[in-house]
Amino acid sequence: MERRTIGAGALAVGAVGLGCMPMSWAYSASRRRGDESLRAVHRALDAGSTLLDTADMYGPFTNELLVGRVLKERRADAFVSTKVGLLVGEQHIVANGRPGYVKRACDASLRRLQTDVIDLYQLHRADPEVPVEETWGAMAELVRAGKVRALGLCAVGARGGRRSGGRLHDATILQLRRVQQVFPVSAVEAELSVWSPDALDALLPWCEARDVGFLAAMPLGNGFLTGTLTPGEGFEADDVRARHPRFTAEMMAANQPIVAGLRRVAARHGEDVTAAQVALAWVLAQGRHVVAVPGTKRERWAAENAAAATLRLTPQDLAEVAKLPRAQGSWD
User: Fold this and answer.
1) Cα dihedral 87, 190, 265, 20 in deg (nearest 10)
2) What is the pLDDT of residues 162-185, one digit of tens each?
3) In this structure, what are the phi and psi dihedrals at residue 51, rounded to the nearest 5 degrees?
4) Which residues make beta-bridge pairs with 114?
5) Cα–Cα nearest to 308, from 199, 231, 193, 206
6) Number of CB atoms found within 10 A of residue 2's CB
7) How far is the C-alpha of 231 from the C-alpha of 61, rounded, in Å?
8) Which long-range contacts link 174-177 to residues 24+ away (Cβ below 8 Å)?
9) Torsion of CA 120, 75, 15, 56, to 10 degrees
10) Is 8 helix (H, G, I), strand (E, B) or coil?
11) Long-range contacts of 57-62 (CB under 8 A, 24+ apart)
């Protein structure tokens, strides 16, 4: 698989990574299978998807434990990214950026992951009660201690900017400017897909100008852009899509032209090319430092996603995708 660099330190990873979250968090618990998830991780590594993206809050903790089972056997094959800064309670999630907590959390992640170093340690969310420079400084100490190789930041924003009319990633860029004064940022993780292209406006250009890697989260639109979801089928109560404004039956039906457009492009590249692979190829075409990180818990999809790294969209393809309708959601 094509290799791409993350940060000025030239950390190299496969152009398509593996988001491990669905194996333990956010999607229907009844459909999780530990053995199947392990096979998916192994298949991704076999295909060159070296970046494994997890977080201590996924589960919580169980996702790191699962990834650790693979790393125990194949540490040299993987580039491990995990996150710190969020604590999961009974019915809530809170931020914790206190330096002492960050250091303890890193040690705990290392134990669960069964490794002596984390390749990319990301701040999941800044703690509003702690200056982000203090949190980032503690993370930088972990680099100097040899427990972490590089640091990354997850985008703050959700969708408040869309409602208020402000740019979606202004808050993230402000945080990046602050932490960059303390220790170099190697990567930023944020949503980027055909139906959520907001990062192209300011965040991705900020990263490109500074040789900061960009990890494209949710590049398949939480599964919608795969074309495998049926409008009106519904989601289990513990699935994040049950509360997502683009996954009501009405909005899923309204957004079908996007999937149809991706399928048209796919058809030009061969009968085995899928809408999902076109969506991932579009993400990769947005810049040389962009790494797509689709999440899956199935071996089949891990292999299909990895194969998207070889798909090269033509100028005609890109122009056609650019003309697809804007995604609709119940906030519109």
Assistant:
1) -30
2) 444 457 899 999 999 999 999 999
3) -80, 115
4) none
5) 193
6) 11
7) 33
8) 175/126, 175/132, 176/206
9) -40
10) coil
11) 57/25, 57/83, 57/86, 57/87, 57/88, 57/93, 57/124, 58/20, 58/21, 58/24, 58/25, 58/26, 59/24, 59/25, 60/87, 60/88, 61/108, 61/112, 62/24
Select from 255, 257, 316, 306 the least CA-distant residue to 281.
Answer: 306
- Is the pTM of the predicted complex or chain greater than 0.90? yes
Gyration radius of the chain over CA positions:
19
CA 235 vs CA 90, 142, 229: distances in Å: 22, 40, 10
Residue 63 β-bridge partners: none
pLDDT in tens, 250-266: 999 999 999 999 999 99
Two structure tokens written together for 291 = 């790494």
Cis peptide upstream of residue 231 (ω within 30 degrees of 0)? no
List active site positions: 58
Q: What is the dihedral of CA 174, 180, 186, 187, to 10 degrees?
A: -10
Q: Are 86 and 52 within 8 A, CB to CB?
A: no
